[in-house]
Amino acid sequence: MANILVIAEVKEGKLKKVTLELLSKGKELAAAAGGALEGCLVGSGVEALAAEMGQYGASKVYVADSGDLADYNGEAYANVTAKIIQDAAPGIVLVGASIQGKDLAPRLSAKLGAGLASDCTNISVDGGSLVVTRPIYAGKAFETRTFSSDIQIASVRPNVLPVSDPDAGASAEVAKVDAAAGDVKTKVLKTELTAGDKIELTEADIIVSGGRGMKGPENYAMLEELASLLNAAVGASRAAVDAGWRPHGDQVGQTGKTVNPNLYIACGISGAIQHLAGMSSSKCIVAINKDAEAPIFKVADYGIVGDLFKCVPILTEEVKKLKA
Ligand SMILES: Cc1cc2nc3c(=O)[nH]c(=O)nc-3n(C[C@H](O)[C@H](O)[C@H](O)COP(=O)(O)OP(=O)(O)OC[C@H]3O[C@@H](n4cnc5c(N)ncnc54)[C@H](O)[C@@H]3O)c2cc1C
To answer: Which residue segment(s) compose the domain that 212 sits in?
Structure first.
């Protein structure tokens, strides 16, 4: 079988968790199918991260390290990454279905004439072919898809694949690539971080989310407290975001973020299809809603029919007791 190439994503000098997830799965697939697992690192000051990619299974890492690539720029990263793919000639390319990956993967597909399956929730190989599972119709159904192209690209949802333990003794060969950013028509002038120290929603293990039932922005303090005890991120429905109660970056759903935490606690969220599209693949869903007929209960593993202003403080107290 041809090799598997994992496109790394770097944030603030660190490999993003989705990259470790892809390497862990890629290692398993490469071992099963008899190919090699390789990595692709593009950015500025990123070369040292190749060693970590080696610990997670990459035997060789192609590194394009240049000041011109300090900020993610779709055109530049696609030019450089496509050149690396042409040189490395993998059969399978794995990218995170993150904001960056969702921008990069279609560009690579178009440049290379490669098949692309986006937003996959599982991947396997059958012979030399990649077989993917991906949600369709806003998560109401799953399709299984395979490829007819020589290069097969899949973007995989963050947080759906487990990360295996690194092998501290393993290392990767580093292949430095002198790839130019190329003809770039836009450039990043500045980046303003709004998330601060907040846990990134798409990488969170636990999310406490609030909707219109929260009644106002001040009441999110209650969710913030529970979230901080659980080391969780706080999410929101679009109704809460549109009302100006929460920043857009907190929105979960079809026009917000797609999340896959181990635990999703929905407070005062009705469970509209557009919200479910972003969170229904969470491993365990808890819903607190005073309306027993709310659609969120159809996807919930555990449901509390009750007033969230009574239930959330009780839940918070119980968590405090468990942690005491
Ligand atoms: C194109 C499009 C894209 C969209 N994208 C998104 C998206 O990305 N994400 C998203 O979330 N929505 C999205 N929406 C909006 C979506 O259709 C819903 O309008 C929205 O999700 C509703 O948010 P909500 O559940 O917070 O509010 P509501 O539907 O108003 O539900 C509030 C819930 O709170 C409960 N409640 C009220 N008070 C209490 C209380 N004291 N205790 C317990 N429960 C209480 C009520 O019973 C109710 O079920 C989109 C819509 C469109 C058309």
So the answer is: 201-323
Q: Tell me if 239 CB under 6 Å of ligand 1.
A: yes
Tell me: do 14 and 147 sit in the same domain: yes
Does pLDDT of 170 surpass 80? Answer: yes
Please state, in angstroms and rounded to a whole number, the distance separating the CA atoms of residues 19 and 202: 13
Residue 150 sits in the same domain as residue 222: no
Q: Is 242 in the pocket of ligand 1 (CB under 6 A)?
A: no
Query: Residue 257: CB within 6 Å of ligand 1?
Result: no
Number of domains present in the structure of the chain = 2
pLDDT in tens, 146-163: 999 999 999 999 999 999
> For residue 6, what pLDDT is reported?
98
pLDDT at 247: 94
Q: What is the whole-number distance in angstroms between the Cα of residue 203 and the centre of ligand 1?
A: 23
CB 95 within 8 A of CB 7: yes
DSSP state of 245: S
Decide: 174 and 113 in contact? Cβ < 8 Å. Answer: no
Indicate if ligand 1 lies below 6 Å from the C-beta of 256.
Answer: yes
Ligand 1 contact, 240 CB (< 6 A)? yes
| End-to-end CA, the chain | 53
Q: Are 123 and 25 in contact (CB under 8 A)?
A: yes
pTM to 2 decimals?
0.85
Domain finish residue from 176, 193, 221: 176
Mean pLDDT, range 33-59, rounded to an integer: 96
CATH of the domain at 249: 3.40.50.1220
d(CA 236, ligand 1 centre) in Å:
9
* Residue 196 pLDDT greater than 80, yes or no: no
Q: What are 305-323's pLDDT values in tens digits? A: 999 999 999 999 999 999 9
